[in-house]
């Protein structure tokens, strides 16, 4: 049986892809057997890391590509650029810390949330992006089809959960328990990024349950970086320019 057949049998796809090239290089450069094997193993490692990144990105459900170097900090001077760059190291994730971006629509909350999520992906963290409304809708449906526990795990397992647009759509009074369940299970274990158009005192109007809302906020802000954006909407500014 040939070496290539063995590599395929053991599912060493990275080595399979590069074997012929590495054999040619080894002969041309008089590489030792150990040097040749080291290079092949590095190819396998790189291939597996690439495949893992692709899988992580596919599961992340990130709707668009947004990056920190594309963000116009000059347009939003209320945001401290260095604070965002510090957060981009993703040191907050192993600590189970949260981030909350608060601001009016179009001020860049989602851009920054996604950008930090992509940074986390680059570091090998498991992330999941969803809107708060979609998560709640999914959990409500899961109660009906008896998959609730599975869906709870789906939202609590990622290293970083990004909940976009909290407060933009009215949530039924019964959904506060579902939201609390997710936040409570992630508390001090996993990191969550939330974007909202409402500051914390106004969250009562989102959930319609003062007691549970207080419990949710308490768990979020215990280990939290809060970024309040005071600037104008990018989209509104662009419309004025186009007009």
From TrEMBL:
Keywords: ATP-binding, Nucleotide-binding. The keyword Nucleotide-binding applies. The keyword Ribonucleoprotein does not apply. One of its GO terms (molecular function) is ATP binding. GO terms for biological process: DNA replication. Residues 95-227 form the AAA+ ATPase domain. It holds the Pfam family IstB_IS21. SUPFAM superfamilies: P-loop containing nucleoside triphosphate hydrolases. Belongs to the IS21/IS1162 putative ATP-binding protein family. NCBIfam families: IS21_help_AAA. This is AAA family ATPase.
């Amino acid at each position: 049986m040939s070496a290539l057949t063995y590599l395929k049998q053991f599912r060493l796809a990275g080595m399979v892809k590069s074997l012929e090239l590495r054999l040619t290089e080894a002969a041309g450069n008089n590489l030792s057997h150990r040097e040749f094997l080291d290079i092949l193993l590095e190819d396998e490692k790189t291939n597996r890391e690439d495949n893992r990144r692709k899988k992580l990105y596919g599961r992340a459900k990130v709707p668009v590509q947004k990056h920190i170097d594309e963000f116009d900090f000059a347009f939003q001077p209320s945001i401290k650029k260095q604070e965002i760059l510090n957060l981009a190291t993703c040191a907050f994730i192993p600590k189970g810390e949260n981030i909350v971006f608060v601001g009016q629509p179009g001020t860049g909350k989602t851009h920054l949330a996604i950008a930090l999520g992509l940074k986390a992906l680059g570091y090998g963290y498991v992330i999941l992006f969803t809107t708060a409304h979609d998560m709640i809708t999914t959990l409500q449906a899961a109660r009906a089809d008896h998959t609730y526990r599975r869906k709870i795990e789906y939202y609590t397992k990622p290293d970083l959960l990004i909940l976009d647009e909290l407060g933009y759509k009215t949530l039924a009074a019964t959904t506060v328990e579902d939201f609390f369940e997710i936040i409570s299970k992630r508390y001090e274990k996993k990191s969550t990024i939330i974007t909202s158009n409402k500051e914390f005192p106004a969250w009562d109007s989102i959930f319609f349950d003062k007691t549970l809302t207080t419990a949710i906020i308490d768990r979020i802000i215990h280990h939290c970086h809060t970024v309040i954006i005071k600037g104008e909407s990018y989209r509104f500014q662009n419309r004025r320019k186009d007009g």
